[in-house]
Amino acid sequence: MTVNEKLSFFVELLRCSYNIFLWSYTPDLKLLSSNCPPDASAGEMISLADFSASISEYVQSGQRFPLILDTLPGLLYVAAFEYEGIEPVRIHILGPASTGRNSQILLRNELDRRNLSVRLRSVIFRYIDKIPLIPTTQFFQITVMFHYCVTGEHISNEEIQFAHGNDSSASDEIQSISGEHRGIWAAEQTLLQMFREGNPDYQKALAKSSSLSSGIRLDTGDSLRQQKNSVLVLLTLCSRATIEGGLSPSVSYTLNDQYAGMIEECRTTSSLSALARTMLDDYMQRVRRAKTDNGLSPQIRSACEYIIMHPQESFRISDLADRSGYTEYYFSHKFKKETGMSVADYIRKVKLDHARTLLCGSQMTIQEISEELGFASRSYFSSSFQKEIGMSPSEYRRKNMKL
């Protein structure tokens, strides 16, 4: 079967349950074909306009995983990319799907803000009530199958990418609707055990747990709030598991508070998903580091924990030495002997690790992050980040925010 034949069959199967449409475009986003009624396609073009820059940048980057487009409040699309060798030949977009019970109200409010013609408004409103509501877990499964139809590649939910439009402040979230809870406890325990052990292959366990449930079975009527609640629960569980794995309780609780605040600041599925991945990776790296730090003396371990918990401070080695009860010279010598790096290098590494979290999980500018972490200037921060991480702060943010 050709790609078009596979897609045609796939979409017809989907339309047995969901009134969803397929558009195919050239790499420069010229429409090739669609099964959407002509009068409804005008509304789709408004959503596509919000994403043209993001899609073009994504194609130019050479990435091939499917891209979920979190567009106008309550509307969701997914793009799959067809290649011949290394050249993109077609972009296929499936949608729209509704992201929650509150989607239609939010969508109507957003359209009121736009200067649309009376004809176009009437066309869009005519189709609002027909947009299908698809639970998070099921939409991810559809995305994985959609990608397979286009590329023949098997991927997991973790490899799905996210993008939001130009007006992301108005975006709503994917509706989280869980089914029965069979098997969730066992999958959850497997995931938490991997965090206790510092096992970096936790993504597979997370994907299995996510496939069984998409979150708390509490219909708040606010899909953004519902999704945040689920991530907060995951944060709490993982922070406690990492304590059992050897991470200092004070460090774990401090991180918990920081990430909880970042979760509350998220306003789109894109930023929330990116933050959740960053959060879990951060905890995993820290528990692995804690297991290798068991040979540290109590004084040096205490100093390391204090630095980790206060990355915004401007540390003086003399103050850290006083906290440890050592002279500055002896403390510096002992610290390097036990950790393998100087106090200044350790402080800089901790600050840059925290900078990565802020770049992925906050809307702070690079200048604000530089000032927050006490770097003398933005240029010094950027050069230090480049040297430690291997890329500039802006490049790191662009790659890890999945925009």
Describe the structure.
- By secondary structure, this protein is an alpha+beta fold.
- It folds into 3 domains: 3-170, no CATH class; 181-292, no CATH class; 294-403, Orthogonal Bundle (Arc Repressor Mutant, subunit A), CATH 1.10.10.60.
- The chain has 17 helices and 6 strands.
- Helix 9 packs parallel to helix 11.
- The two termini are 33 Å apart.
- The model is unreliable at 165-182 (pLDDT under 50).
How many E-type strands? 6
Strand fraction: 5-15%
User: What count of domains describes the coordinates?
Assistant: 3
Instruction: Supply Rg.
Output: 24 Å
Question: What is the secondary structure topology, with strand pairs?
Answer:
Blueprint: H1 3-14, E1 21-25, E2 31-34, H2 38-60, E3 67-70, E4 75-84, E5 87-98, H3 103-113, H4 118-128, H5 136-151, E6 161-164, H6 184-197, H7 202-212, H8 223-244, H9 249-265, H10 269-292, H11 298-309, H12 317-324, H13 328-339, H14 343-361, H15 366-372, H16 378-389, H17 393-400
Parallel strand pairs: 3-6
Antiparallel strand pairs: 1-2, 1-5, 3-4, 4-5
Helix pairs in contact: 1-5, 2-4, 6-7, 6-8, 8-9, 8-10, 9-10, 9-11, 11-12, 12-13, 14-17
